[in-house]
Amino acid sequence: MPKSRKGKFISSYIGQQLELRFLQYAEVEDIYRRALKIYESKLGDDDPNVAKTKNNLASCYMKQGKLKEAETLYKQVRKR
After folding, report:
1. How far apart are CA 36 and CA 39, in angstroms?
2. 13 lies in some domain
3. How far is residue 13 from each of residues 9, 19, 22, measured CA to CA in Å?
4. In Å, how far are 24, 34, 44, 50, 69 from 41, measured between CA atoms?
5. Are the C-beta atoms of 51 and 63 separated by less than 8 Å?
6. How many CB atoms sit inside 10 A of residue 31's CB?
7. Is the model more confident about 53 or about 14?
8. How many distinct structural domains can be found in the chain?
9. What is the pLDDT of residues 3-52, one digit of tens each?
10. What is the CATH number of the domain that holds 66?
């Protein structure tokens, strides 16, 4: 395969992988948000599962570049 075609193939592959990961993070984010809502309503804000889920959601936000959202949740977990 010529160098230019090989480079295009590699960049296309990397782009597809990044897009797939982004979609997966979006799905994971949705699951964590739903779990958090359930935990908060059933267990209360002080339950360790709420803190753990907030931390996991914040991590998911970080991986997507949603830094303000992540910071807000990390601060909530620290205040606990």
Report:
1. 5
2. no
3. 6, 10, 14
4. 26, 11, 6, 10, 21
5. no
6. 13
7. 53
8. 1
9. 455 555 565 666 667 767 778 888 889 999 999 999 999 999 999 999 99
10. 1.25.40
Q: Cα separation of 40 and 53, whole Å? A: 10
For the chain, the farthest-separated pair of C-alpha atoms sits apart, in whole angstroms, at 60
pTM of the complete model = 0.76
Backbone angles phi, psi at 45, to 5 degrees: -65, -25
Which residues constitute the domain of residue 72?
24-79
Amino acid present at 1: M
Q: How far is it, in rounded angstroms, from Cα 54 to Cα 69?
A: 11
| 31 in a structural domain | yes
Whether 39 contacts 74, CB under 8 Å: no
